[in-house]
């Protein structure tokens, strides 16, 4: 008797959850584009990418981040991988004006936390956008994300996510059940996230600690930009540095000298 009752409870729970998700999803309103935005990519956005041993897809991703016209692109790695990352950047075939926006930094410790701290301290823009080294962005990604920050209460924003399936694996004979399940999960999470944002906004915003290393954020609202062309990503975010104070030691970060791709890190104030 216990097993059927348990299954019935879970079935009912799922039905209620689906109805609530559908209700709040219908109320979700993405941040609209405006004619005179407060923030623009080439003046306000610094992209921070942490990498240690990237695949060749890293070069393809460079060709999707830089067409968004950011102020800068900070690539943070470890000292032993510096030469490899530099070679990948220089052989990516980027236009000269785009390559000049790249700064290659090295973190003292091998950790995502330490690398992010290094990049965030060195960033010059008012908005920090983060991406993993296998994330591809559509060309208007930043332009559609920045309107979220027109609301002074917004401290972080995230886009819908998508999965890129190579043409050679779009076959039942090639793709594995695990790949199919992971792609399905990624595609299904977007409506649920949009419903969560709508529910949080209806309740006056949600308190959050931003996904920045060793930082504290004032009580702020998390929002989304579903009007953003979907990046093929498993996790990227844009965060406003105005609502966070990093607490990192200068020893966490060092920069290589004597190269146009390197600049000294500075401590965030």
Please tell me about this protein's structure:
The model is unreliable at 205-224 and 233-269 (pLDDT under 50). The chain has eight helices and ten strands. The chain has one domain: Spore Coat Polysaccharide Biosynthesis Protein SpsA, Chain A (Alpha-Beta Complex), CATH 3.90.550. The longest helix has 26 residues, at 2-27. The protein has an eight-stranded mixed sheet, sandwiched between helices. Strands 6-9 form a two-stranded antiparallel ribbon. The chain is an alpha/beta fold and 269 residues long. α3 (57-65) links the parallel β1 and β2 (72-78).
Give structural attributes.
10 strands, alpha/beta, disordered C terminus, two-stranded antiparallel sheet, 269 residues, 8-stranded mixed beta sheet, Spore Coat Polysaccharide Biosynthesis Protein SpsA, Chain A
Uncertain segments are 205-224, 233-269
Count of distinct structural domains: 1
User: Tally of extended strands?
Assistant: 10
Q: What is the share of helical residues?
A: 25-40%
CATH architecture: Alpha-Beta Complex
What's the topology here?
Elements: H1 2-27, H2 41-44, E1 45-50, H3 57-65, E2 72-78, H4 82-90, H5 96-99, E3 102-107, H6 112-122, E4 127-132, H7 141-145, E5 154-158, H8 177-202, E6 215-217, E7 221-224, E8 236-240, E9 244-246, E10 253-255
Parallel strand pairs: 1-2, 1-4, 2-3, 5-7
Antiparallel strand pairs: 3-10, 4-8, 5-8, 6-9
Helix pairs in contact: 1-8
Summed up, what is this model?
The protein is of the alpha/beta class and 269 residues long. Helix content is 35%, strand content 18%. It is built from 8 helices and 10 strands.
């Amino acid at each position: 008797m216990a097993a059927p009752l348990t299954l019935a409870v879970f079935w009912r729970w799922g039905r209620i959850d689906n109805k609530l998700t559908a209700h709040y999803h219908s109320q979700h309103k993405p941040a609209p584009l405006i004619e005179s935005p407060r923030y623009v990519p080439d003046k306000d956005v610094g992209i921070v990418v942490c990498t240690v041993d990237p695949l060749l897809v890293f070069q393809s991703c460079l060709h999707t981040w830089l067409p968004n016209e950011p102020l800068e692109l900070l690539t943070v790695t470890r000292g032993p991988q510096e030469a490899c990352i530099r070679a990948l950047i220089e052989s990516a075939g980027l236009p000269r004006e785009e390559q000049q926006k790249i700064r290659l930094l090295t973190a003292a410790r091998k950790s995502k936390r330490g690398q992010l701290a290094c990049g965030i301290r060195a960033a010059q823009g008012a908005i920090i956008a983060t991406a993993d080294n296998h994330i591809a962005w559509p060309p208007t990604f930043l332009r559609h994300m920045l309107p979220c920050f027109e609301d002074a209460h917004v401290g972080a924003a995230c886009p819908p996510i998508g999965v890129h399936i190579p043409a050679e694996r779009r076959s039942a004979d090639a793709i594995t059940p695990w790949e199919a399940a992971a792609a399905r999960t990624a595609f299904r999470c977007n409506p649920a996230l949009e419903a969560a944002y709508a529910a949080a906004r209806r309740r006056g915003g949600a308190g959050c600690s931003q996904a920045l290393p060793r930082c504290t954020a004032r009580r702020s609202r998390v929002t989304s930009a579903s009007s953003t062309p979907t990046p093929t990503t498993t996790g990227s975010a844009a965060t406003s540095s105005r609502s966070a104070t990093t607490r990192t030691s200068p020893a966490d970060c060092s920069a290589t000298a004597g190269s146009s791709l390197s600049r000294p890190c500075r401590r965030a104030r």
